[in-house]
Amino acid sequence: MPGRHQTGSATGQRATSPLRILVVDDDEQVRQALLRTLGSVGYEVTGVGSAAEARRALEEEDYAAVLLDVRMPGESGMELLRFIRSHYVDLAAIMVTGVDDPELAQSALSIGAFGYVVKPFRPSEILINVSNALQRRSLEIQRRKQIEELEDKVLDRTKRLRESIVSLADVLSSTSSPFEEIIRQLAPDLTLGSEETPQHLLRIGELSSMLGERAGVDVPARDRLRLASALHDVGKIGVPDSLLQTPGRLSMEDRAVMQRHTVIGHRLLSDAESPILRLGASVALTHHERWDGQGYPAGLAGNAIPLEGRVATIADTFDALTSDRVYRSALEPDAAIEIMLEEKGGHFDPGLLDLFVASLDDVIAIRDEHPDRAPIRAEQPAGGQRTEPRVPAGASSEGRRAMAVQVEQQHASANGRTGISVDAARLLATTTKSRVQMEEITPRWLLQLLPWVQVDGGVYRINRQSPAGQERRRVPISERAGEPYIEAEGLRAIPILARAESTLLERLAGLMAAEERPAGQMLTEEDGGTDRLQVIAHGKAQLVKAGAYGPRQQLGLLSGGDYVGEAALLEVQSEEGPAVRTLTPCRLLTLQRSAVQDLLNQDPGLRGELQRAIESSRHAASQTNGHGEARIELMSGHRGKPDLPVTYADYDLAPREHHLSLVQTVLAMPARVADLYSSPYDQLEEQVRVAVEAIKERQEREILNHPEFGLLSLAAAEMRVPTRAGPPTPDDLDELLALVWKKPAFFLAHPRVIAAFGRECTRRGVPPPTLTLGGSPFLTWRGLPIVPTNKLATRFSPLGRLVSDMLLIRVGEQEQGVIGLHHPGVGSEETQGVNVQFSGIDEKGVSRYLLSAYFGVGVLTPDAVGVLEDVEIGNYHDEDPS
């Protein structure tokens, strides 16, 4: 009966310590049936008829599981479920109800129910659900315990890491200590959990310093580089020891954990005051980047990788190849150099690698000066020593295969095996070969989707209507010694100053001061005017205005280069306008109205200059069509016979001209190779095919990123928007669509940006649909495909966040969009628009072929390209793995 606890238990044999189960159901018959079923198998069961009784029972006893009816008088089972999940995390709850509703079941499971059983039920169904729930409960309790233990270990390791950094700073604070002495003091910290030796750190430092000298680095910088390079793997003390000592190839998951040591090392060192430690932070972060952009953690390429990172990569790789490891023996220096030269221009900076190879004698001298005292040898098999012949430097492929056969025969003899080995038998077999594979090749969707215009004269001129007034543009922000400032000419981005004299601009720029504002602070109040011009140097702000029926409207975002309060420069201020509130911490450059008035009072001539500039800008603005172009005078809605306006379309006298750029290379083909080794694949065709693929990849990269004609640089300031919160959300893409709204064709983004957008859509419950294009599926938004390209690079923002950019593009001449420019008709042979010309044979019998691709890109009107800037791609919505 309600109000009294009813219990049941097994009548036969039962466990010595039975689990307690609470049954909550207002139906007496159902409750009794559940008590009998559960008690029959050894559970200690208590039954109550309401949620209030259940709460009292939970306070008096510890239960392993609870069975809840959904619909009960007073507090419902769903409400009681929420209470249980928030107050009794180790209690497994199962819903037992007569309501067969999938939505209700899903709601219960989402709250935290372990099961959902519909009445009428079979006893076996109840027992199975309870057994599964208790097993899952046990696993979750065990998992929480493991997490707590892991958190304790993480706290302990973090403490040790911080102590290591303090030790580093203490040692480096004394500049008089010799390099070897410093490394010996730091070795216990820098080699924690790693197989590396203090001598390895000494060699890395000396090799980096030597290579820095060859590259023209001055003496003080070389000394800093010597110490900083020794810190390259400091982040490994944040990697599990078991992983560091794993012989052989790592799994994909383990490799991801190992790669985190670059970011860990950067985090440990980047906040330090010592310039050496800060340089070490850069080395730690970038010494696994590759020249071709295929490294980690950020995929930087070429000169985007800091010099110290490129130097440390070469030094560390050479020392690793020529040192013993648990999984292999050391290589001779010549063999190591041969392997590294195969990665010239791929893994390594080709210029630095040439300098390193040219200094091989000095490199070997450094190795001999700092030999490992306790080298780590590859493990020997049980039962005796095993001596393997080492492949000599420069050995041919035939020599390497012969040596492999020799090793196999030695092993066969040692094991008493008879018969020919597999490797020996393969020498008589015919292999089936593939064409040359090249991971750099991508679909190059941008080149496929752009409409191409043939440019016969090498120049494409974009004729436009004559510009009249100036629209709002972003103020260019410069930096000096880490501090933002505005060049005087940069103030012309503000329309009322566009036609001002340079003297006035210089005086105004000199009055601007830097200010810091926290997130959430109002820069201006709604319709309250402002007493200063405020230019955002770093950060984001939001334009807001009170709605007619309640909440404030969000009118737009402001970011670096945007400004508010230009009315402070006028004699009479306007009080109308939205409020401006910071979304993130902001760095501002401000110009006080009082300072402007003091300046004008001191020099009346400047007052006249400012007034003339303002009047000129206003007059020009009155002549525009709202897009900065000269207005076509029209009359509409008139009656009678008024005098019609006389007008004409004026042209821009200085139109933008796009000169075709080019990618070129000279392909060398020895006649002997072409004559003897062209079956089953023609060597010349393969060489040309691979070179053409590389040229087309470079062409697409330049179209996007070239500082003069790339789409990212051609995008107008007013067509750039920041994200609202960092990661790309549906709201951000809608904001981009509001800019490029006239027949947009497609979005363009790095694959990691697309993945980040997918996560945000999933989080909001609006998974984007897919579209098949060219046989490949694409995510879409508002019906437009989101096209992937790895040519939109990822980078670290000033705040240390991994970011990229996203583009929205309108295409075609007819649509005043983006077009590709090319001139394929040069030369004697065309391959994918790349011209291949035979240019002769030298005295060594080497044929040479000139490969050329002429190309460019044109943006016919500024509103054809929109950019979503600084899109964060590292946001996940699960538990923080750190």
Describe this structure in words.
- The chain has 882 residues and is of the alpha+beta class.
- Strands 21, 22, 23, 24, 25, 26, 27 and 32 form an eight-stranded mixed β-sheet that branches. A six-stranded mixed β-sheet has the order 1-3-2-4-5-6, with helices on both faces.
- Helix 7 (198-214) runs antiparallel to helix 8.
- The two termini are 52 Å apart.
Short description:
The chain has 882 residues and is an alpha+beta fold. The strands form 7 sheets. Strands 21, 22, 23, 24, 25, 26, 27 and 32 form an 8-stranded mixed β-sheet that branches. It has a 6-stranded mixed β-sheet with strand order 1-3-2-4-5-6, with helices on both faces. The protein is globular and about 95 Å long.
Descriptors:
32 strands, 882 residues, eight-stranded mixed beta sheet, alpha+beta
Gyration radius (Cα, Å) is 36 Å
Apparent shape: globular
Helix percent band: 25-40%
Mean pLDDT: 81
Beta-strand residue fraction: 15-25%
Q: Care to count the β-strands?
A: 32
Uncertain residue ranges? 9-16, 374-417
In DSSP terms (H or I, runs of 4 or more residues), the helix count works out at: 27
Structural class assignment: alpha+beta
Topology:
Blueprint: E1 6-8, E2 20-24, H1 28-39, E3 44-48, H2 51-60, E4 65-68, H3 77-87, E5 92-97, H4 102-111, E6 115-118, H5 123-172, H6 179-190, H7 198-214, H8 219-229, H9 241-244, H10 252-259, H11 261-270, H12 275-286, H13 307-321, H14 333-342, H15 350-358, H16 360-369, H17 397-414, H18 422-426, H19 445-449, E7 452-454, E8 459-462, E9 478-480, E10 483-485, H20 502-510, E11 513-517, E12 522-524, E13 532-538, E14 541-547, E15 550-558, E16 563-564, E17 579-582, E18 586-592, H21 593-602, H22 604-622, E19 656-659, E20 661-670, H23 671-676, H24 683-705, H25 711-714, E21 720-722, H26 730-739, E22 746-749, H27 751-764, E23 770-773, E24 776-781, E25 784-788, E26 795-796, E27 802-809, E28 818-822, E29 830-831, E30 834-841, E31 846-859, E32 865-872
Parallel strand pairs: 2-3, 2-4, 4-5, 5-6, 7-28, 21-32, 22-25
Antiparallel strand pairs: 1-3, 8-19, 9-10, 11-18, 12-17, 13-16, 13-18, 14-15, 14-17, 20-31, 22-27, 23-24, 24-25, 26-27, 27-32, 28-31, 29-30, 30-31
